[in-house]
């Protein structure tokens, strides 16, 4: 299952995810997050390090240790379905995205102003997180983290 957390810039998507994920994991779900970075290139490696040098030389690089792994691969696109199929499918109970609004996946919309919901109707809106009451949707306040997590767990288990 994929659920996208979408919302306006600085709406609190990352903050909400960092509060909901530990609850989901504690309840036994294996969770992955795909973070959309729409501003072009980004670095997860430090300039001058061996893995950085290998990537600069033209290779895709896997950095592996006994506790964590990273795969630095040149992307031909940032298609969420392709990412899911190639890297995540079958390994996780739940894949959450931060962003990927245009991918059209089922979503939880996080906004400060209820009028902003209109920008996020590219997929099925499962719920809205906003400190103001929002009519017509399943609605949570930002501080209702446990309720949001329970809502997601019910979706995964249904």
From TrEMBL:
Instruction: List, alphabetically, the Pfam families matched.
Output: MobB
What PANTHER family does the record point to? Answer: MOLYBDOPTERIN-GUANINE DINUCLEOTIDE BIOSYNTHESIS ADAPTER PROTEIN, MOLYBDOPTERIN-GUANINE DINUCLEOTIDE BIOSYNTHESIS ADAPTER PROTEIN-RELATED
Checking CDD domains in the record gives: MobB (cd03116)
Q: Where is the Molybdopterin-guanine dinucleotide biosynthesis protein B (MobB) domain?
A: 2-131
Can you supply a Gene Ontology BP term from the record? Answer: Mo-molybdopterin cofactor biosynthetic process
By what name is this protein known?
Molybdopterin-guanine dinucleotide biosynthesis protein B
An MF annotation (GO) of this entry:
GTP binding
Give the matching SUPFAM superfamilies: P-loop containing nucleoside triphosphate hydrolases
Regions annotated as coiled coil: none
